[in-house]
């Protein structure tokens, strides 16, 4: 199962992005960015931002809402992910998960860390975003815990 899963994910490319997937992805991304920018004003986001300031590296990515502050990609993804989810308005699906809040901050932070001559295109970003969503959805389908969520809550 794991090998098949890896082969499917590895085999995805921009040709698999239909017009409908591209349009929905853009809407999900715009929604996530909006919720994330709103979330930068929350107390929990302020706390993780202060905590993360102790980390630095040669690679850095943007902290949403802070033009003068960057972090290593791992911590930028963390802070931006907290911002997205802190208002709890980010997108969701059944069984309960928040796909874009986990995927988009990581994809953007990593894309910013690429060297200038290896920057990715918008289509590459959409593909990476959708691969992340696909991985999350398939992992949920594999999880026996996820199937029980509606029964527990």
Automatic annotation (TrEMBL):
GO molecular function, one term: aconitate decarboxylase activity
Positions of the MmgE/PrpD N-terminal domain: 4-147
A GO cellular-component term linked to this record: mitochondrion
GO BP terms: defense response
Highest taxon, organism lineage: Eukaryota
One Pfam match: MmgE_PrpD_N
PANTHER family from the UniProt entry: 2-METHYLCITRATE DEHYDRATASE-RELATED, CIS-ACONITATE DECARBOXYLASE
Family: Belongs to the PrpD family.
Name this protein carries in UniProt: IRG1 decarboxylase
Source species: Pachyramphus minor
């Amino acid at each position: 199962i794991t090998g098949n899963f890896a082969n499917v994910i590895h085999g995805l490319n921009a040709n698999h992005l239909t017009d409908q997937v591209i349009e929905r992805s853009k809407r999900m991304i715009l929604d996530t960015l909006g919720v994330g920018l709103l979330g930068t004003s929350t107390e929990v986001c302020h706390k993780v931002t202060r905590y993360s300031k102790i980390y630095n590296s040669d690679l850095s990515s943007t902290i949403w809402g802070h033009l003068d502050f960057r972090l290593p990609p791992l911590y930028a993804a963390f802070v931006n992910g907290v911002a997205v989810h802190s208002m709890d308005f980010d997108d969701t699906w059944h069984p309960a998960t928040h796909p874009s809040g986990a995927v988009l901050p990581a994809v953007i932070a990593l894309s910013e860390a690429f060297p200038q001559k290896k920057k990715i295109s918008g289509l590459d970003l959409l593909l990476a975003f959708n691969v992340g969503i696909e991985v999350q959805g398939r992992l949920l389908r594999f999880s026996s815990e996820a199937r029980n969520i509606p029964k527990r809550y």
